[in-house]
Automatic annotation (TrEMBL):
This is F-box/RNI-like superfamily protein. Residues 60-275 form the F-box/LRR-repeat protein 15/At3g58940/PEG3-like LRR domain. It comes from the Eukaryota. It comes from Rhynchospora pubera. PANTHER family: OS04G0440901 PROTEIN, OS11G0201299 PROTEIN. It holds the Pfam family LRR_At5g56370.
Length: 349
């Protein structure tokens, strides 16, 4: 490739590893690694590639060639750095011009406001953006064309609030773990269709899903903090008219069955409910109490899901699930509901 620079290149992938000493010191050996790796990257860029995927361990944000962010042919770009660079300086590439780019993934990057603004303004065709294990040193994201946003296990900074202006956004995946992002605030009302959120009990985020409740068809809430997030949604009392599929997992749903039933009252057109067993959980027989804070009364909480067709239980241990599903069925107005039990694979358990 180094001698055929006029040739066209479809895909370029580079995995570059250095020893621990070379990563942690500013040695001549480390500098040599950077020079050699960059020579491969420059050679690839000269061939007008469509796809570039880099896993470069020992680099920081500033060591990547600036030309990487000015390649007119690129349609798909993946950049993953070493986790050690997360404590370095923020990426600073003053000029971003990727006119053909549709898919962009960052891993272990430090991203500030100028760089994020440069990316979103310099990639006019960008449809999918993924930020994985990044440090988010910015407060807003603006894009009229982005359709898919994945924020996965990133660190927040400052207020921890990210304001999102994305009127075309249809898919959001958000994995939040402590210390994470405190709030995703939608300043426009995107036509979200699919929303998947993971969070632990220490980092329950504010995700303003009630702004998008009329469009979401597929909603998934996972992790030990999902209960708190569901509670926040129920308190806002939105009606999820378009919701067809609800997936809940990795939290003690049997202990909060009343909360689930309260939410189902706001999803009248739900067609499928999927519950994924919490690891190592053993369910006990559960009686739906339906406690009312106003009256202090107890009783069942019936809910109308006239379109509900399937309840799927993905379990590691079936103990207690039959009783829980029976309790659910007793409170569903629609009687012809199929129940599917799926054993989780060993690697999942």
């Amino acid at each position: 490739m180094l001698f055929l620079r006029a040739s066209k290149l479809d895909t370029f992938r580079l995995r570059w590893y250095a020893s621990q000493d070379e990563v942690n010191t500013d040695s001549e050996e480390r500098k040599a690694h950077v020079i050699v790796a960059n020579s491969w990257i420059y050679a690839a860029l000269s061939c007008k590639p469509l796809v570039i995927s880099l896993n470069v361990y020992g680099f920081d944000n500033s060591k990547l060639p600036p030309a990487l962010f000015r390649c007119s042919s690129l349609k798909h770009l993946e950049l993953h750095l070493s986790c050690r660079s997360i404590n370095g300086e923020a990426a600073e590439y003053k000029y971003v011009n990727l006119p053909s780019l549709k898919k962009l993934k960052f891993g272990w990057f430090i991203i500030n406001d100028p760089f994020m603004q440069g990316i979103l303004s310099g990639c006019p065709l960008l449809e999918e953006l993924e930020l994985c294990a990044c440090s988010l040193n910015f407060s807003e994201m603006k894009s009229d064309h982005l359709r898919c946003l994945n924020i996965l296990a990133c660190q927040g900074s400052g207020s921890g609030v990210v304001e999102i202006f994305m009127p075309s956004l249809v898919s959001l995946q958000f994995k939040n773990f402590y210390p994470g992002v405190k709030k995703l605030s939608f300043k426009s009302t995107p036509p979200l269709v699919k929303v998947l959120v993971w969070c632990d009990s220490l980092s329950v985020p504010e995700v303003e899903l009630f702004n998008c409740s009329t469009t979401v068809t597929d909603l998934g809430l996972f992790g030990s903090g999902a209960e708190g997030l569901l509670q926040k949604i129920v308190l806002k009392c939105p009606i999820f008219d378009s919701l067809k599929q609800l997936t809940l997992g990795q939290w003690s749903i049997n202990e909060k069955l009343d909360l689930l039933c309260q939410f189902l009252q706001h999803a009248p057109n739900l067609e499928k409910l999927t519950i994924i067993d919490k690891k190592d959980s053993v369910l006990k027989r559960h009686t739906l109490t339906g406690k009312s804070e106003k009256k202090g009364a107890t009783g069942q909480i019936p809910f109308r899901c006239d379109q509900l067709k399937v309840i799927e239980i993905k379990y590691s241990d079936l103990t207690g699930w039959l009783e829980l599903v029976d309790t659910l069925l007793q409170n569903i107005s629609r009687r012809s509901v199929s129940v599917v039990y799926t054993k989780l694979p060993i690697e999942y358990i």
